[in-house]
Amino acid sequence: MGTQWFYDTSTGQVQELERKGQAKDLLGPYASREEAEQALARAHARTEENDRRDREEDDW
Predict the structure, then answer these.
(1) Is the pTM of this model over 0.70?
(2) Can you tell me the distance from the alpha carbon of 27 to that of 45, in angstroms, rounded to the nearest whole number?
(3) What is the largest distance, in Å, between two alpha-carbon atoms of the chain?
(4) Of the residues 29, 30, 38, 60, which has the fewest C-beta atoms closer than 10 A?
(5) pLDDT tens-digit series, residues 26-58
């Protein structure tokens, strides 16, 4: 298995498995550094999409 990567929300840094911070601050694991670098943007986009769906469901 390759290196696992994490995005640390408390520091804004991407970290390897061996150097990761506290679990409460992490998003991941991700298969690549690039995926981990996009973690916050992807989470934000998913939240926005879910909020949009919730608003649509509330409008019926």
Answers:
(1) yes
(2) 14
(3) 49
(4) 60
(5) 999 999 999 999 999 999 999 999 999 999 887
In sequence order, what are the residues at sequence separation of 6 or more whose Cβ sits closer than 8 angstroms to the Cβ of residue 29?
A: 4, 5, 6, 17
Q: Alpha-carbon distance 28 to 15, whole Å?
A: 10
- Which parts of the chain fold into alpha helices (H)? 33-37, 39-58
Residue 60: the pLDDT is 60
pLDDT tens for 3-30 read 899 999 999 999 998 888 788 999 999 9
State the amino acid at position 35 in one-letter form: E
